[in-house]
Fold this sequence. Notes:
This protein is mostly helical. The protein is about 65% helix and about 5% strand. The protein is built from 17 helices and five strands. A hairpin with a 3-residue loop joins strand 4 and strand 5. Helix 3 (about 70-95) packs antiparallel against helix 6 and helix 11 (about 285-300) packs antiparallel against helix 12. About 30% of the residues are buried. The model has no long low-confidence stretch (mean pLDDT about 95).
Amino acid sequence: MKFTEFPYHRPDVPALLAEYRELTDRVSKAPDGQALLALWEEHEKQDEAYSQMARLAQIRHTIDTRDAFYNGENDFFDQNSPGVGNAQLAFYRACLASPHKEALARRYGDILLTILDLAVRGADDRVLELMQEDNALVSRYQNLYAGALVDFEGQQLTLPQLGPHKQSLDRDKRRRAFCAEGEWFDAHREEFDEIYGRMVTNRNAQARTLGFKDYSQLSYLRMGRIGYGPREVESYRRQVLRDLVPLIQKLQGLKFRRVGLTDPKFYDLPVYFQDGNALPHGTPDQLMEGCRKMYRELSPETAEFIDFMFDNQLFDLLTKPGKAPGGYMEQISGYAPFVFSNWNGTSGDVDVITHEMGHAFQAYMAQKQGLISELFSPGMESCEIHSMSMEFLTSPWHHLFFGPDTAKYQLAHAEDSVFFLPYGSMVDEFQHLMYRQPHLTPEERNRTWLELEHRYRPWIDFDNLPFSGRGAGWQ
């Protein structure tokens, strides 16, 4: 069934909550392991039916955040999903308390009980209203960002549509493109700062209610981090600072010399070659045909997968007004993965059909294997194994997209993969600091970000750009 034909209906939440209360009560009375397993299977059916509609509404909302119907449905799930989640957690608690819980471990593996334990420690009814408010804040941020339009060279462009101009060989044009983006954010700075301030306050309140010092501790549970914690992550960041930052500074110097820059600035970072970056050759339809050929030749499994994705039109790739920013893969329970992006004619378009398709292939195989939802994906960082690996596993087919510029793309892609590591570490440290220091003003938050920039990416000169120059680029 094609994605556009997939029927949507709003779930009956009161009925679902009643069903979960009954299931939870029956778990506590289950006489043996077989009875517990049968109740677990009922939970899986209920969870699939609800999450299927939630994911459909989410995807269709992000495709066009101006769509009044799906905007309303997104609000509905923002309000109701925390309550449904808490009802499921009550069911999980009953399973963990059951004397027959080892039946679950024998069928699904010991890790299921670990995952359930993480989940039940991460939320309960005491934080229901806070979770609803948090969902609404996330949607408000997304809708604000998605509505961005900037005037640039006589055109009104979305922020992704500025992407090619930020890679122009005309240095002044690059700077103007970054300024146009920054000026839009600066024009909305009060709303962005207010949203984030409320997010920090809200999430810390959730954490304290659940017995944690701050949200940075609670977030480890919610991200499914098993077997490591803040101490190990801090050690990783120290290694990045000690071993990678000096190496990357040298690599950046080589790149700047390759481009011919003697006084590089922030707006020069997107340019990798003196004669211009590698750009995809062909129309979007031609690129997608290259994508299909690539996955058909990669393996029998990926061939089956890509035909399924094409036959059911499980993509929305081109940028357009009102579309949410970024790119993602979302699994529609019991149906299929869906890939979302904002193509803008840069090499990032190919990054998406390798990276997000890596996520999608994992989801496709997990569903084919009949994995239960709790085991469908690993923790958030581990999911990136599938996507980042696919970016490199598909390298023998990059010529389908870049032709004679393939070597340029592959060098820039490899450099980008290394350059990301200090940035990702910086984001992680910033988030820890923000939740530990919720009293910071917007200016102090930005100052903290700039201090981290100087430590993790000392090669950057922001040249007094709007937005980024004042340290607000983290937004």
